[in-house]
Inverse folding.
């Protein structure tokens, strides 16, 4: 598929949106008036006004990069993982890519990636579409419309996390845990997850870590013992929550994702390894994996203040990210840096990644002039396999879900 054609679809395809907005609204209303009202009040720009088009080649490159990352980390347990063999795999890994004419570029891996339930709602609301009456266009997860039931896939994933630790014993209770969850921007998603678990016969609580009570035999919430914690916390090491970390270490609760998962996949220093062919070769990674990562991961280096003069001179070529950061907090494009912020970066733990510009999508929000928004593409992955693919449209430096016409977007693979 010619890149210019995809650029044309993303840049000019305004009259034919490729998305059934009425069907989406019906799906949102079907969740109940209270939930719909909360979405409109809390996050009115969470669903984008148009889909993003990608090529089959871009899809295959993303799959190759994901497979290569799996190869690199599958035998790495790290300090956090020692003694934790045989535990769960970690739910909703998010592989985030920038797509441009040079290909697909892995920007980072997240191990507590949000948005999957909202994207599933969006994806399930859409019907097959044909572009210009001739070219078949399919909703992702793959090059054809997925036939899997995403709700059942999600339920089976959580049950598998439990099964890996406890075998055939039924999973009865889940706690969806985040700091002050009702104040979180994506709280409506927690409610979707809670409803989904309830339909599967699993009691689900939405709770702040402080609501989890540590007892001799594990963690309790509202008087019920918690079997599994769906972890949405951004304190990846759980240093602020010793009762939760202790219960995980004692295997009194299945915690997914957990600190071991973050260290193995999402520590941003891993990007330096993924983009270093010599280090990968020394580790025994296959040439196929090395080639996929060399093409798909921008060069990444760990920032050393001893090289401050060189970093300042080359700053416009790089994007600086804190090693332990999340949600683009503390992340800066080098060409936007002030001297003060640069000096702060030099004194902190940062990585620098060569700029890989995001793609652009023209949208026409209701009542506004057409505008170009940036987009990234997130692959939600479990056990090395893609469950669904979604895009995020935004203005500014990073995704924010506050841009009219922006938000999570359907991805359509054009054949």
């Amino acid at each position: 598929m010619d890149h210019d054609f995809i650029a044309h679809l993303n840049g000019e395809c305004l009259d034919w949106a490729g998305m059934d907005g009425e069907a989406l609204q019906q799906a949102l209303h079907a969740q109940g008036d209270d939930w719909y009202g909360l979405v409109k009040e809390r996050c009115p720009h969470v669903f984008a006004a148009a889909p993003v088009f990608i090529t089959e080649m871009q899809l295959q490159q993303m799959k190759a990069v994901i497979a290569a990352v799996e190869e690199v980390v599958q035998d790495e347990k790290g300090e956090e993982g020692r003694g934790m063999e045989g535990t769960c795999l970690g739910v909703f890994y998010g592989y985030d890519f920038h797509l441009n004419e040079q290909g697909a570029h892995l920007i980072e891996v997240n191990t507590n990636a949000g948005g999957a339930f909202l994207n599933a709602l969006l994806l399930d609301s859409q019907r097959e579409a044909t572009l210009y009456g001739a070219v078949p266009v399919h909703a992702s997860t793959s090059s054809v419309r997925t036939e899997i039931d995403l709700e059942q896939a999600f339920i089976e994933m959580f049950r598998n996390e439990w099964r890996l630790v406890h075998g055939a014993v039924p999973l009865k209770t889940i706690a969806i845990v985040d700091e002050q969850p009702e104040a979180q921007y994506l709280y409506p998603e927690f409610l979707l997850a809670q409803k989904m678990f309830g339909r599967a016969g699993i009691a689900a609580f939405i709770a702040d870590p402080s609501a989890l009570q540590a007892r001799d035999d594990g963690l309790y919430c509202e008087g019920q013992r918690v079997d599994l914690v769906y972890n949405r916390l951004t304190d990846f090491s759980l240093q602020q929550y010793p009762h939760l970390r202790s219960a995980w270490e004692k295997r009194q609760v299945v915690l997914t994702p957990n600190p071991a998962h973050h260290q193995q996949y999402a520590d941003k220093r891993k990007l330096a390894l993924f983009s270093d062919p010599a280090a990968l070769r020394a580790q025994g990674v296959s040439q196929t994996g090395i080639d996929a990562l060399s093409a798909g991961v921008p060069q990444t280096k760990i920032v050393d203040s001893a090289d401050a003069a060189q970093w300042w001179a080359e700053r416009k070529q790089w994007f600086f990210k804190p090693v332990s950061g999340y949600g683009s907090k503390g992340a800066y494009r080098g060409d936007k840096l002030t001297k003060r912020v640069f000096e702060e970066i030099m004194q902190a733990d940062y990585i620098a990644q060569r700029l890989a510009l995001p793609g652009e999508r023209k949208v026409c929000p209701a009542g506004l002039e057409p505008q170009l928004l940036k987009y990234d593409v997130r692959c939600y992955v479990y056990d090395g396999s893609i469950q669904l693919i979604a895009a995020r449209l935004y203005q500014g430096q990073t995704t924010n879900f506050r841009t009219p016409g922006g938000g999570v977007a359907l991805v359509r693979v054009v054949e």
In short: The first helix runs from residue 3 to 12.
